[in-house]
UniProtKB/TrEMBL annotation:
Highest classification ranks of the organism: Bacteria, Bacillati, Bacillota, Bacilli, Bacillales
Pfam families in UniProt: Response_reg (PF00072), YcbB (PF08664)
Protein name per UniProt: Two-component system response regulator YcbB
The UniProt record lists the keyword rRNA-binding: no
Alphabetized UniProt keyword annotations: Phosphoprotein
Domain Response regulatory span(s) in chain numbering: 4-120
Annotated source species: Paenibacillus silagei
Residues modified to 4-aspartylphosphate: D55
SUPFAM superfamilies xref list: CheY-like
């Protein structure tokens, strides 16, 4: 069954061009088009397409606002953003809203086909993996008559380790600190919010070093280990992005866990074979995002 597409763009010629590319290339079927954010919301909720091509800048509301509104109303379509803008903050915001890829204007047939083939492949793979998980879940429940484990039974460590591994930082000493910080944060029971970095460091140090004088020295060491671990993760993701900008790991983790401007700067440094020492890591942001992912993984 071919994938269904909707196109939301205030430029009529862009809508026509995208529709021709999708249908002429056999990528899928365009089930509807809209020229504004509000019209697009009504269309997409009605048609429930597999994939939506969304213009970033539109007269009534921008594409990011439109996507967030759709997601809040239960929309599960995959989104591809269309834009002339290459501003780092806007790109970062777009990826955080859940888009899969960017298509840059003016529209290029080869780029559109390349991007949408990747989206199609990822959509098909996601659907295939969902079917496998469903089958395995049923088999687990049947094996030896054992009941299926309810969601949210994983430990904090089991959730965090694969994330750190995907970012290429699991071998860093700071990965142990990150796991400990998450375990302490979850034990506190603060929904979605974290204490200050100073408080997190102090609690972690106290767990390692019960003697106050030793714990005080450990606080600085924890911060240094975290910075090195995050720097390693940033470098790993930037290297992946240079090789394949559409790599799922890069697209998910780079803009979500790091400031995208810093990611771009690190990519530039790697490309030029130098290290300026100017790239910074935002520890608070990293831990906040990770905390939210952990809570989601625990079913909270």
């Amino acid at each position: 069954m071919p994938l269904s597409f909707c196109i939301v763009d205030d430029d009529a010629s862009a809508r026509r061009m995208l529709q021709h590319i999708i249908e002429d290339s056999g990528l899928g079927e365009v089930t509807g088009t809209a020229e504004s954010g509000q019209e697009g919301i009504a269309l997409i909720l009605s048609e429930t397409p597999d994939i939506v091509l969304m213009d970033l800048l539109m007269p009534d509301q921008d594409g990011i606002e439109t996507i967030l509104s759709l997601q809040a109303q239960g929309c599960r379509s995959k989104f591809v953003m269309i834009s002339q803008i290459e501003n780092g903050d806007m790109v970062s915001r777009a990826y955080k809203s859940g888009i899969e890829f960017f298509i840059r204007k003016p529209i290029n047939k080869i780029e559109v086909e390349s991007v949408l083939y990747k989206v199609n492949e990822r959509y098909a793979m996601g659907r295939y993996l969902d079917e496998i998980k469903l089958t395995l879940g049923k088999l687990e429940g049947l094996q030896f008559g054992l009941p299926q484990l309810p969601p949210g039974k994983r430990t904090v460590k089991e959730i965090v380790q694969p994330i750190l591994m995907n970012m290429g930082m699991i071998s860093e000493n700071g990965s142990r600190d990150i796991i400990t910080i998450m375990e302490l944060a979850v034990a506190e029971g603060n929904s979605g919010s974290l204490p200050s970095l100073k408080e997190l460091y102090e609690r972690t140090a106290a767990k390692y070093r019960p003697v106050p004088a030793e714990a005080a020295k450990e606080v600085k060491a924890i911060e240094q280990r975290l910075r090195r671990a995050l720097a390693a993760g940033l470098t790993s993701l930037a290297s992946i992005g240079l090789t394949d900008y559409g790599n799922p790991k890069f697209e998910h983790y780079a803009p979500l866990y790091f400031d995208f401007e810093e990611v771009r700067l690190k990519m530039k440094e790697i490309e030029q074979g130098r290290d300026s020492g100017k790239v910074k890591v935002n520890i608070k942001k990293f831990l906040q995002v990770l905390h939210l992912e952990v809570l989601e993984g625990l079913g909270r």
